[in-house]
Design a protein that fits this description.
The complex is a heterodimer. Chain A contains 13 helices and 17 strands. Chain A is α/β, with parallel strands linked by helices. In chain A, helix 11 packs across helix 13. Chain A starts with 8 loop residues before the first helix and ends with a helix. In chain B, helix 9 links the parallel strand 4 and strand 5. In chain B, helix 5 packs parallel to helix 11. The two termini of chain B are 25 Å apart. At the A-B interface, helix 1, helix 2, helix 3, helix 4 and helix 5 of A face helix 1, helix 2, helix 3, helix 4 and helix 5 of B.
Amino acid sequence: MHPYLPHTKEDITKMLEVIGVDHIDNLFDDIPKNIRLNKELKLDKSKSELEVTKLMKQLANNNVTINEKVSFIGGGAYNHYVPALIKHLASRQEFLTAYTPYQPEMSQGTLQAIFEYQSMICELTGMDVSNASLYDGGTALAEAVFMANHANKKKDVLVSATVNPQYKDIIKTYARFKGLNYIEIKESDGCTDMENLKDLFSADSSSVIIQTPNYYGIVEKGSEVRTIMNSFKNKAMFIVSADPTSLAVLEAPVNYGADVVAGEGQGLGSPVSFGGPYLGYIAATKKNMRRMPGRIVGETVDKDGKRAYVLTLQAREQHIRREKAMSNITSNQGLVALMATIYLATMGKKGIKEVAIQSMYKAHYLADKLCNIKGITLLNSKPFFNEFVIKTKVNAKMLYEVLIEKGFFSGVVLDDHQLLVCATEVHTKEQLDSFVKEVEGIL
Amino acid sequence: MRDYNKLIKECSVKGRVGYKLPPLDVDIFDYKEYFGEDVLRKEEVDLPEVSEFQVVRHYTNLSLKNFGVESDTYPLGSCTMKYNPKINEDMAALEGFTEIHPLQEPETVQGALKLMYELAKMLEEITGMDEITLQPAAGSQGELTGLMITKAYLESKGLSHKTKIIIPDSAHGTNPATVTMAGFEAVEIKSNQNGTVSLEALEEVLDENVAGLMLTNPNTLGLFEKDIFEIADKIHQLGGVLYYDGANMNANMGIIRPGDMGFDIVHLNLHKTFGTPHGGGGPGSGPVGVKSHLIPFLPNPSIIKKEDVYKIKDTYDQSIGRVKTFYGNFGVLVRAYAYIKTLGRDGLKEASQLAVLNANYMKERLKETYNLPYDIICKHEFVLAGLKNSIEGVNTIDVAKRLIDYGVHPPTIYFPLIVEQALMIEPTETEDKESLDAYIEVLLTIAKEAVDNKELLLNAPVNATVKRLDEVTAARKPVVKW
């Protein structure tokens, strides 16, 4: 007997009697003998909770956390404050153990939470419609690229060099198999090179993708991209990947002409969690609503006229359209979207802005202090938000490794002399100052 | 329950806050001047202004309008709604797992890498495959990854003319949707009268352009595809790839392995077979396993072990590339690891056996009252074709809605598409006999109600938080935000 398996011998006997077979093995008589695994799996035998806990804790303890060291690593995963209530609410079994709301009458909790999520994503991006979420920031961009191809049937995908390299890799993978052409727009001074975009943009362009703040933390000028795209009436889509936290301060992409906004929502209430699960968000203008991938929740009424929520516009989806569907995505990133919803509600109008502004001020304070050290300069001159690249006279990897010994994960090593450094509201001045002191000591 | 019907926005009161941050302790500067007005937001983000307790009460109230596997029986066919062990939640919440950054130096995350490496090895053993990637975020992304691998492999062999992927008509909609997304063409074949792949229908579509075939085994009817070796031979003879959709792996653990059935590629759904919570739609995890000839095409990077040190490396020289940021849905992987360690080789096999026992037991007790189109031994799930005693105007949807009134979750309905009035029932192994009996009794009562007073079905649900919804207007005049 095992705690997860409720059947007693008597239960099994009674059930087999009803079925009309003698032994549980007879339920597998339809599987030809030569296909069956006639040996035990080479795995451990079952374990008690005490044993498993011990084992798991050993593994967990064999990791150095960002609470043990002070971490300035960003690069697509951000250590923001996560209010305590999030894990308590998101671990309520009614949310945690339910599945996709196929039966709306008994899933109003999930459905309304998604509706609220969609509303708040629209509020941040300025867009008309958001879906119920996608896997992560990278796949959300790839889905956006496919949306553009659905709309305009064109094949050139123009991606700024300043987009997160992992997102670029994912777009490359998706584009290759769909038969689309991945074309990279050059960078200049850490920003999308607009002159190069002008050269590359053509009648064959299907989409133009930028990220802001970009991989180097620099705020891109979306309006300039739009202007270049407008010079050519070719129905190409402008896709923006924006850090949702930054949108409390930075212009809503709709206002500089984005057609689709898609990005990473991990920073909205989820820990960095070694890369997942994260949250892909995607939002678009009304014109593109029926090209959206994945689930969308809509408001409606029940038979008595009471307000309620339901999965809607399903004619886009795989279970109806099969090979003609907009995407193969089946569900969403439900629980992580719920956590983002609760986060945005908790931080609210004032809090999201304070997070964005504190992160920005702290990053700038850190950058200023670091650049006072001889042998360290900012790589780029363009305005950055809460992440920046420093140029180091010494080998960056060496600096990074020595700093781990001193108690700091200093950032992402980009090359021999470049380090991508990020700060958020969780850092204290004391931490920033002692980091600067250690760096100074090494140089 | 109080009839709670507010949006969080409607709880908002100007000036209220639900958070507090430490006061800013660094110098400030004029950021408006620094960035320039043109890139700054003109209108403030209009998010709710609510207190912490308001947030807690609001989402608690929303949760009370939901139904999870801990509420009662949830036999959603094809979704494997089994018990999600509590210990796994505690383990996944350990700080040593949640507070590590994916770009940290590998030496500082050896525990996490070891867990991933060993999980992949365990899944290789369970599926009989040669190598597993943990990158895909869910089953559908696993499928896409698998078909991309197929395409890259065929291209490397100079077989780019192979563009057709064969799919049985009983397949999940995700299969054909994935085929299109990966740049292939879907060719559907009809099932035979036994509900399995028709070898004749298969023969008809076989030609040199066939790239592969996607199959679930047991299939979506819960039936074992006995001709699997013959099917595999036919596909392999043409140089094609046989793809295993792991949605139904819960019938197979320790009993039969896709790798031994001739499959070249497998995806698993950790949120189904390996007991990680469905989360109202996610996060899932969809590891993909391949046979040795396909290893070079797996997505980069992977976790490798060298002299007891774990590393993250771009190992595969003909890789399809990256499909997901970082390394996969790590938090889900932690839960699945704990699950496999807890059940072990003995528990996993017993779980599959009992899942099959539960399904057959329900099938036998219901087949007198509901149509059973395929009256043979099933695996972990079975499909009924509506009420035997057909009553005018009463459909499967009405039976499903009446189940809600009785406080249990309906099965999957109207799927697979090849069965009319389908009720697809997958009880899973964690339901005890009493729960199964209670669910059966409800289904029998509903069948009786359909005869005696069909209005009870047609008006159902009346005990849920809302009655039947106007889905037509919702789609015609979409309101998708407040």
